[in-house]
Design brief:
This protein is an alpha/beta fold. Helix content is 33%, strand content 22%. The protein is built from 21 helices and 28 strands. The relative contact order is 0.11.
Length: 633
Amino acid sequence: MADIKTEVLNNLPKDAEISMCNFEAANIILYTKNKDFFLDSKDAIKDVVNLLKKRIELRPDPSITLDMELARDKIKSIVPEEARLSEITFDPQRSQVIIEAEKPGLAIGKAGDVLRQIRKETFWVPLIKRTPAIRSKIIENIRGVLYENSDFRRNFLDQVGKRIYSGWIRGKKEGWVRVSCLGASRQVGRSSFLLQTPESRILLDCGINVAAQGDEMFPHFDAPELKINEIDAVIVSHAHLDHSAMIPLLFKYGYKGPVYCTEPTRDIMALLALDYIGVGHAEAAKPLFSASDVKEMVKHTICLDYEEVSDITPDVRLTFYDAGHILGSAISHLHIGNGLHNFVYTGDLNYETSNLLSAANTKFPRVETIMMESTYGGKDDNPPSRKECENQLISIVKSTLENGGKVLLPVLGVGRSQEIQIILERAIREGLIPKVPVYMQGIVWDVTAIHTAYPDFFNNRVKRSIFHQNNNPFLSEIFKQVGSRKEMQTVIDSGDPCIIMATSGMMVGGASVEYFRAFAENPKHNLIITNYVGPGSLARRLQDGEKEISFQVGENRTETVKVKMGIHTISGFSGHSSRSQLMNYIYRLDPKPKKVLLIHGEVSKCLDLASSIHKANRVETVAPRNLDSLRLR
């Protein structure tokens, strides 16, 4: 640890006047008292970066920064009014100023000229954040937590850096690599995997099985190799509950290390965790964790952009790539031991450009082993094309509305709902379906607000629409938030046709179940299932054709409803890849892996996809079971 700091300082010019050298996780932060060196280091920093292959950032020493109130006024005068500033927050400990604007591109300026002017006139380091087009309380709260805990964050990130560089040896290429399956092996749900090396214990995801009960809900926390106080880092592929729900529980159990994810994943993950507390699970006597545990998770989160390389332990380097599944979803590339082994964990992936997101990345620097989902890996899992499914959705919605009925769409709060929003907005704008309100209940509205903060994560077509045509589909007037039970009852009682999007997507609780109970016995209405539904869930029972559904009413009484509304399934909107897309993904991988591990699928699908990939690509394939441990190197 001292060695790398010494190497950095020894390779800087004598007049650099470095007052402090700290870590911010893998980043090495230098503070200078020399104003000229801060504004122009004359490639000195770049030369050290090229030598050590580490991220090094130069900041002004707090003693040379402009007074905060004077700097605030100066920033307001420099940033164009058209950028529409909403907040300016100073972090004096780190000499940074966080500038929130509705149009961050204008706050950055052409080729960064506005940022350079702010640095030159204030000697603060400006960070630009986008103000969500729809107000997001969760984003405001998260940013507030981070700002309020700036001292904690500084010390925490420094400790993470000390751990990363504690075993820093350039060129080390020996050791072993092992992965243990704590969940989601030959099943869908409770994704969690422990990657181990001589230096590192890294947890990949920690989710819940939302369609299960009892111990089957949770990852195998009792696995002998899992010791929470020994985990070095947690990596979250994306925010869905089956991948992230149990991370606050780790902090309740005493975990104090970093959680790596993208920024949208952090925000949505926190929102879903708080919603999970609020809604509760049908079988849980009390919440598994508290809001304070969620807050601890946020305080310990380190966000990385796609293709940003970062050391996370002494012998593991992480890079995220776009997974195409939901906003901020990431494929994790882990470079282990300076070339010892390269491991890729896909999380959930979609190898197709959707209405909202780009297709999953297939190009990596090196790959020896890939662990890939197989949710739709069975021979029959090749749904109609996305366009055919759009036409089917529009047809069902159109006929229902024209007959005076209501359309109920039970949706996953994240991903599928925003995809369908874009389809409905376009269909109404183009006159393909009648213009009716689209009511959104549950966390769908809050998640959509988060989407408006991160348009840079969308595919090129949606980004062009937002940035160049000033048309953000999520801001359409057709979308209406249902925020209370009274408003919900108004929607139910209204005789007017409408579309309702409500969580949960599997109908294991939440508003979607209440709407179903209200509409089930009226044949004018239609329910459309557009996402994966787990065995035992209400949505799967309806999908399988059950015509009488009983609900517990109070402690000693049940109520049975006869299902007369139409039940439809459209499977082509999935954020998961189809069977053919999964096969094509492996075929297109560059470079080719030597081993493929198939997880996150029902037993038959994991085994069938493993067999097919082996035959087509002549690579070793394994479909591990829960609690299996596999040596990769």
